[in-house]
Amino acid sequence: MIDLYTWGTPNGRKASIMLEECGLPYELHTVDIGKDEQFAPDFLKISPNNKIPAIVDRENGWSAFESGAILIYLAEKTGRFLPADPKLRLQTLEWLMFQMGGVGPMFGQVHHFLKFNPGKAPYAEERYHKEALRLYGVMDRRLAQSRFLACDEYTIADIATWPWVSRWEWHQIDWADLPNVKRWYLEIADRPGVQRGYDVPSTGAAIARP
């Protein structure tokens, strides 16, 4: 049994989607970041950086924070979504780090400036929007060559990246310029595990489809 501490954000959905895709039993503990519950002392013992998601594996008592680390841990625990082949494993970790170091931070800035504070910082809006578009372009070129980001297998690199792309309506993109990302996005959106994991904690949230 896994204890999952999360909220309905792209990073939080990485963990819930992974748990659903792996078929691992878990108990949900909501951490309402709108109410600053991530600063609760008990949560900080698990996630010292006060960020969701975090997990505790009751089988061994281990805890994990940082979504990328959680995905790797669960992949290795279950033997799923992280290829055993050394080259494909490397490619998966490359694209996972692409998300962790690029897509997540930059898309997060787009959300802050373009979605929630439009018109307050034009330079920042332009800078982060251009970088988000560049990252979309990197993904589209990659997906012209490969069914999924790392390889032709669905991996934790896709599980990490897809929830950020699922907020595409906030990114001011033109899908006509991103046919390969669109194909990839819709294929993953149709996965039952993704659909279940997307709505954790359950709010009836629907996946936006272009």
Structure in words:
Residues 1-82 form the GST N-terminal domain. InterPro entries: Glutathione-S-Trfase_C-like, Glutathione-S-Trfase_C_sf, Glutathione_S-Trfase, Glutathione_S-Trfase_N, GST_C, Thioredoxin-like_sf. This is Glutathione S-transferase N-terminal domain-containing protein. Residues 85-210 form the GST C-terminal domain. The protein is of the alpha+beta class and 210 residues long. It has eight helices and four strands. The protein has helices at 10-22, 41-46, 67-78, 86-116, 122-143, 156-165, 179-189, 192-198, and strands at residues 2-6, 26-30, 54-57, 62-65. Strands 2-1-3-4 form a four-stranded mixed beta sheet, with helices on one face. A hairpin with a 4-residue loop joins strand 3 and strand 4 (62-65).
Q: How many strand units?
A: 4
Q: List the secondary-structure elements in sequence, H or E.
A: EHEHEEHHHHHH
For the termini, the CA-CA separation is 36 Å
Percentage of residues in helical conformation: 40-55%
Radius of gyration: 17 Å
Strand content: 5-15%
Please, how many helices? Answer: 8
**Nearest-integer average pLDDT:** 97
**Class computed from helices, strands and strand pairing:** alpha+beta
Shape: globular
Strand order of the largest sheet: 2-1-3-4
The biggest sheet amounts to:
4 strands, mixed
Pfam families: GST_C (PF00043), GST_N_2 (PF13409)
Protein name: Glutathione S-transferase N-terminal domain-containing protein
Organism: Marinimicrococcus flavescens
